[in-house]
Amino acid sequence: MSGFLRAVYRVFRKDLRIERRTKQVTTTVAVFALLVVLAFAFSFVQTLQRSALLGRGALWIAFVFAGTFGVTKTVELEDRNGALDGLLVAPVDRSAIYLGKVLSTTVFVFAVSLVTLGSTAVFLGYSPSVSTAVSIAAVLLVSAVGFAAIGVVVSILTFRSGLDELALPVLLVPLVVPLLLAGVELTAALESGAPLGGWLRLLGLYTGIVLLAGVATFEYVVET
Amino acid sequence: MTSKGERAEAASNAPAIEVDRVTKSYGHFTAVDDLSFAVERGSTVGLFGPNGAGKTTLLRMMAGLARPTRGTIAVDGVELAPDDYTTYRTVGVVTHETMLYDELTARENLRVHADLHGVADPEARCATVLETVGLSHRGSDRPAAFSHGLRKRLSLARALLHDPEVLLLDEPYTGLDQRSVADLESILDGFGDRTVVLTTHDLERGVDRCDRALVVDRGRLEADLALDDETAFTAEYRRTIGVGSEPERSGETAR
Asked: Which of A31, A90, B87, B100 could bridge to B75 as Cys pair (CB 3.0-4.6 Å)?
């Protein structure tokens, strides 16, 4: 393994170890996502026959809320005690630190998305076929990468510049709109068997662009 | 990009740290203003000055945690530059904050940093530095359960993991009781011929510890004094900073 990849893995492993011990991100975020699905179930109890539409809506709304919360928690970890500075004084490429954080955030957000997908089946009767569910999970995974790529940079920027934690969604959500649009449309297309073309390209391209932008800007974001 | 050979030659002739006309601005506020000095190898240099003088900003720039707006900083003859992290191997940093994770044990915290620094035999090295700072018996405890003094010691252990030639210490005595200060002093005594740059408000301890004082005020280097006479230094410091004639600039962000 090259030094760069080793550093990515070490940052990722550190986050995973902390999460395994505290279960802070996955538990709280999963409960939060579950509550969103339950709120949908109670609010639209009369229209549950349109479960595909509701399930899709609940899934992606929960994704955005849970993702924002998840990103905040993983970055807050680095803000406490100046822990991020501890990583930055190590002789490793800062892109590796960024990608390690993106990787761990992606895993947490994706894990919660899968729980949300399952809970939409239980509480909203949303039951796509297995192959469609697998494809939706793949869309959620790519979206989680894009979300984490933007979220890590924006939340570090928020914390480092002393902005209130509440400023994060205001800055973050507009930037993830393309991911959200593509995700919702791809989910609908997967259910109906419509062509994926343009939305799939948007999701892939936007995720690639934000990831590259994150790698290019991270060094400047963390140096204050 | 310099070659390894050129770096080795530069390192053998150069001062441990060379700060050349460094300025750091945050918008209209200039934290460090056109500051230059060199730190000789093996010396202990104190950065003295009131709150908001620019000491911490300067130290953060030397550590590579902040980028100068203008000017250059070289460690071991190698200029700190974006995307070049080689000099980080020679520098250990202790700041106001511990840089530790409360969720991990002391030993796990050290292991994270040892791995990132590419320390050979990390387990053994973690045990050694824990012993150096007198925390061998607390390796399995989380730093959240530590007193301020013990957290500071663990932070020092983290900074020593990769056996750095240069140590940057930001206010090492702040918040410590007398016993913790004495413990810290005995650890610092064991540093041998390492180059140390520290910031402190504690004039008495700073004078005892350092060979040389750089007095910084409003981001500018006001005095560069040898510390062979404490009384003379204190008088010169008070004259330079104007203690007594000027209130503490508490309204400014302490950097």
From this structure: B87
